[in-house]
Amino acid sequence: MGGRKSMQWLFLSAGTGVSPSSFGAWGHRIPAYQISFRNGHPKNQKADSHTMWVSGRCYQEALEKAAAQLNVNEEHLELTQDDDVLDTWFSSALFPFAVHGWPSQTDDLDRFYPSTLLETGHDIIFFWVARMVMMGQKLTGRLPFKEVYLHSMVRDAHGRKMSKSLGNVIDPVDVIQGVSLEDLHARLEGNLLDPAEKERSRRGQAADYPRGIPECGTDALRFTLCTYKAQGEDVNLDVNTVQTYRFFCNKIWNAALFTMNALPDNFEPSPMSEMLADCSIMDLWILSRLSDTAAKINDGFQGYDFPIITSAIHKFWVQNLCDVYLESIKLSLRADAHRAWVSRNILLTCVEAGLRLISPFMPYLSEKIFQRLPGRPEREEPSICVAPYPTTKEFSMFDTSLEERVALSLDIVNRIRSIQKEFGIQKLSGHIVCNNDDLRGVLSQLCPTMATLSRCRKLQMTNQEPDHCLATTVASDCALFVEMKDIDVPRVLERLQAKLAKTSTGLNKIEAQRSMDSYEDKVPQNIREKHDQQIEVLQADSARLSAAVAMLKTAR
User: Fold this and answer.
1) Which of 78, 299, 449, 483 lies in the 20 to 30 Å Cα band around 122?
2) pLDDT of residue 538
């Protein structure tokens, strides 16, 4: 909305409404008093009290005003304040400064007003936000806040507005604590829905929550809501997504448990400066990932881009720390004492920093784990709530060159895993040929790590292309060779071609439906979106299977 139009709305709006007295608990009582004369006064029987009203900040002020208007002594008058209240939005408009003691000039008012940010929904921007602006300007001479963050409107998983008649209302408490389908049905009996609506609600609940709503916890729900796109877009809240992030909480807990079990009794963390010189490639890589993650998260907070923040947090904990680093150091934790000491310190550093990164979104989980980790002598905060948030100043170890090399090694790991899965091999033997001297040195050091992560039988560097191997190019100067002795080529080729044919049939069937003239008009949007997702998955499967078939056909 343009500035001129919004200002017109503010200054030309109608006055504040009046709410029924039944909502008196939610608003300010109207400062209007009905005037009546006390018994014995000559005008007592003649005055029309229904038309005699006066307003005032308090009873005494109203009484003085009434006595002056009627030219009588105060003792002859009796005032009765109106029982009705001003509407909720009037009282809410006073909130930014009234909570700090206004109209008194308190220390809190001087210190905390005006605030910086208001977070609210776009549906009440004029009901509430505009009124706070008007009241703040009128009564204090200052705007109550500088920025307004508009959160999304929450709908059900199908994009429908939540409605009792549809049975799709999601109670946050049910998501946090869990509820059975029978209990959801039982609640319908206590409302005022007619029998037809109750039956429709039961069907809706049974379709969406056939096994009830699982217990997901507060942290998982909060994190889920922050992962959705914000600023004006609706959130289609799917309980299954919340449950996914509950599993994410479990993963964080298990990673912390692994860390605490890896630390000896009375372990005292060492400063980072004492460890960097002895760090392995994977140690430096996870510190680089931590530095990059902290940078992205802090940038995200500056722009209120919570989906970017939550994505960075999830990627660091799951893809970087748990899936790669934790697995890569399991051998080093059982190595010589010094190597194990370095790995334990780096691991503890990453877990502790990761908890600080996620604490605004998962305060309960992060605090519970934080209290169990060994404290650092140079920084002993009593709670994660007062611990400094990680920044690139604290973690300045981002290394682009190192990350590119480790990314290549992880690509090799993924290729080995894919070959083992597609070809039905438990543990293959592989060879890496690299014509880049610098890269060959890094990959040589990472061979044990790649073998551990891919769970292959053997992985080694070699200078020449080995015979009787299946070849796949990793980079322009690097290739992976898998020994054919581990592969039953005819059997595997037959199985892959059958899977490819089935995938192609499914893809062609959906494409045929999409090519119909009436497809866009007659097929609902949610079905079209489902078809788009299915095509994307089938195309990816087809490309992967085709590559595997071609690889086997051209094997040496």
Assistant:
1) 299
2) 87
**Residue 59 reports pLDDT greater than 90:** yes
DSSP labels, 279-315: --HHHHHHHHHHHHHHHHHHHHHHTT-HHHHHHHHHI
Q: Are 275 and 345 in contact (CB under 8 A)?
A: yes
b/e 281-305 (16+ beta carbons within 10 angstroms → b):
ebbbbbbbbbbbbbbbbbebeeebb
* CA distance readout (Å), 308 to 69, 230, 293, 295, 496: 64, 11, 10, 11, 38
Residue pair 474/411 in contact by the 8 Å Cβ criterion: yes
64 and 58 Cβ atoms separated by less than 8 Å: no
pTM: predicted TM-score of the whole model, two decimal places = 0.78
Q: Pseudo-torsion of CA 24, 25, 27, 29, nearest 10°?
A: 50
Residue 535: phi, psi to the nearest 5?
A: -65, -40
Per-residue model confidence (pLDDT) at position 556? 47
- CA 484 – CA 466 distance, rounded (Å): 11
Cβ burial, residue 519 (10 Å; 0-12/13-18/19+): middle
Residue 248: the pLDDT is: 97
**Token digits for 501?**
């044919």
Which of 466-470, 474-478, 494-498 bottoms out in mean pLDDT, i.e. has the lowest? 466-470
Contact 235, 307 (CB under 8 A): no
Ordered strands of the 458-461 beta sheet:
458-461, 429-434, 478-483, 469-475
What interhelical angle do 437-454 and 281-302 show, nearest 10? 90
Q: Which two tokens stand for residue 301?
A: 């907070």
Closest by alpha carbon to 327, among 287, 289, 282, 290? 282
Say if residue 369's pLDDT is above 70: yes
Instruction: Tell how far CA 168 is from the center of its chain.
Output: 22
Report the sign of the C-alpha dihedral through residues 533, 538, 541, 547, in that order: negative
Q: Return the beta strands (E) in 185-259 as ranges.
A: 235-236
**Around Cβ 470, how many Cβ atoms within 10 Å?**
22
List the one residue out of 415, 461, 452, 473 whose CA is nearest residue 282: 452
